[in-house]
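stage 2 :: seqdesign
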């Protein structure tokens, strides 16, 4: 009954905000349109994106988060709707502090006074998944530390599962009733949302992601990432170092404090591309609410990253694909872009290169009538994703996260510095990465990676050689076996000679290739 009641409420909200017009627009079932006209009581005085955003806010925090995730799928939904959904704010009233305390005590097996020196009863932030309180603890060394305590909202799993069940049902309806519904892949979008939500419900997973980013960024001196206090963490409670900073969108306050705003914009781009191309592990939720700037004299002007519930990862193949695509874009080498799509396996192998090249050209060429600083890499990537529908490209989830984060970074950077040239800032990373793929550093990395394997084999070589010589010297060894052993020895000698020649040739080729890459790619 509760599921039926929730379903009826959702239907009423759809009608109340006039979303039947949006939902049924492309349906080929006349009876559906007739029913919608009869029962429609919805408003039509606002743009469709605004009505959809307001409806999701009315449906509650889970639907708000769904709208946020949906806003990242600009390869699937119209831009006006995506832009409006991006305005959704994940802010809900806090749950009672007594419930937060009960969750903390249940997970730790201790009373609140045994855990904390002090604990602020009023939460500093509240969202659909969790809320945050400030507190003071004693760490293992007995030193008092200011911390932020993130507590999972009670009853979230059952609430999420109920709403996800309804979303799956509605996605099936949309997919079955409309041709466009199949193209929008509603069930896949809901499945993606399901994964995001359940990942965020495990605060140990979030803490692990934060710890990894903290290690990766330790030597960059551009960003502060809170330390996780593992002895206080569990799946429902996360205790981390308290960070003090000014939200990134309070530009005037930062400028008044003496922060170099253009440098801050460049540092943000540097930070993002370092995470993407160097580490293949990046913060994928970099909206203004999760980014602050430190005004502490010792760390003045550095970014502060918060909320690590969503992180993106890229394989070496992903990174190579992206780096080569970006380089080809700005050389206007559209044929190479088309070839990369086919080589990656994301386009059917029977795709004609010239047809794909023409489509890529139509997407990219308009951008080059403007200065490079006016080119949006995120928008360019999004346009390519939209174009790729025609060629049956399956967009990879990790690239969707990358596109979302790149759009966030560009928006933040250009809000700080309208003259920011994203390409010029990103170019050194792409150049360095491409050189590393064909340079001596990559060769040495591979040797280092395989070193333990070869080190294990080396002690066995003397015994193998001894056994070979002993068998060759035995009088009862047949002439045929001796001939086979000698042949094997000659084959081994030729292989060693070939290997030595290859290493010498490869070393010379590396130098030439670096020169070619540096001249041609950039």
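stage 2 :: out
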């Amino acid at each position: 009954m509760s599921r039926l009641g929730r379903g009826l409420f959702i239907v009423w909200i759809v009608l109340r905000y006039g979303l039947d017009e949006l939902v049924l627009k492309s349906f080929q079932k006349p009876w559906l349109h007739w029913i919608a006209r009869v029962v429609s009581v919805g408003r039509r005085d606002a743009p469709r994106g605004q009505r959809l955003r307001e409806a999701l806010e009315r449906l509650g925090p889970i639907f708000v988060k769904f709208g946020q995730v949906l806003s990242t799928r600009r390869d699937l939904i119209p831009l006006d709707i995506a832009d409006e959904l991006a305005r959704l704010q994940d802010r809900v009233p806090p749950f009672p502090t007594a419930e937060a305390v009960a969750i903390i005590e249940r997970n730790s097996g201790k009373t609140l006074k045994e855990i904390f020196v002090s604990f602020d009863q009023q939460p500093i932030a509240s969202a659909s998944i969790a809320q945050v309180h400030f507190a003071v603890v004693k760490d293992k060394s007995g030193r008092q530390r200011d911390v932020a305590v993130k507590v999972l909202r009670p009853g979230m799993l059952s609430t999420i599962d109920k709403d996800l069940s309804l979303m799956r049902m509605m996605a099936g309806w949309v997919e079955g009733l409309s041709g466009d519904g199949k193209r929008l892949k509603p069930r896949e979008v809901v499945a993606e949302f399901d994964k995001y939500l359940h990942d965020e419900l495990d605060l140990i997973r979030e803490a692990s992601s934060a710890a990894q980013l903290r290690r990766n960024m330790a030597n960059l001196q551009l960003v502060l990432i809170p330390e996780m206090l593992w002895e206080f963490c569990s799946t429902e409670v996360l205790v981390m170092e308290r960070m003090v900073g000014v939200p990134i969108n309070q530009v005037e306050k930062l400028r008044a404090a003496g922060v170099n705003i253009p440098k801050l914009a460049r540092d943000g781009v540097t930070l993002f591309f370092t995470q993407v191309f160097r580490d293949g592990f990046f913060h994928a939720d970099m909206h203004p609410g999760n980014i602050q700037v430190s005004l502490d004299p010792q760390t003045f002007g550095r970014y502060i990253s918060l909320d690590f519930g969503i992180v993106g990862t890229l394989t070496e193949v992903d990174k190579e694909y992206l780096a080569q695509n970006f380089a080809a874009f700005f050389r206007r080498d559209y044929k190479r872009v088309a070839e990369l799509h086919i080589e990656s396996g994301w386009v059917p192998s029977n795709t004609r290169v010239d047809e794909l090249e023409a489509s890529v050209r139509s997407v990219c060429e308009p951008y080059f009538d403007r200065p490079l600083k006016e080119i949006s890499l995120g928008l360019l990537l999004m346009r390519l994703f939209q174009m790729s529908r025609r060629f049956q490209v399956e967009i990879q989830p990790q690239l969707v996260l990358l596109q979302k984060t790149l759009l966030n970074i560009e928006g933040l950077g250009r809000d700080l510095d309208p003259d920011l040239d994203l390409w010029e800032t990103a170019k050194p990373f792409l150049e360095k990465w491409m050189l590393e793929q064909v340079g001596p550093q990559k060769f040495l990395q591979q040797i280092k990676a395989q070193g333990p394997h070869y080190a294990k084999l080396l002690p066995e070589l003397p015994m193998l050689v001894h056994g070979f010589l002993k068998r060759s010297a035995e009088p009862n060894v047949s002439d045929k076996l001796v001939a086979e052993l000698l042949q094997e020895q000659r084959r081994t000698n030729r292989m060693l000679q070939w290997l030595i020649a290859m290493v010498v040739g490869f070393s010379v080729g590396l130098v030439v290739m670096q020169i070619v890459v540096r001249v041609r790619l950039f």
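stage 3 :: structure notes
- The CA atoms of residues 334 and 360 lie 6 Å apart.
- The chain has a mean pLDDT of 76.
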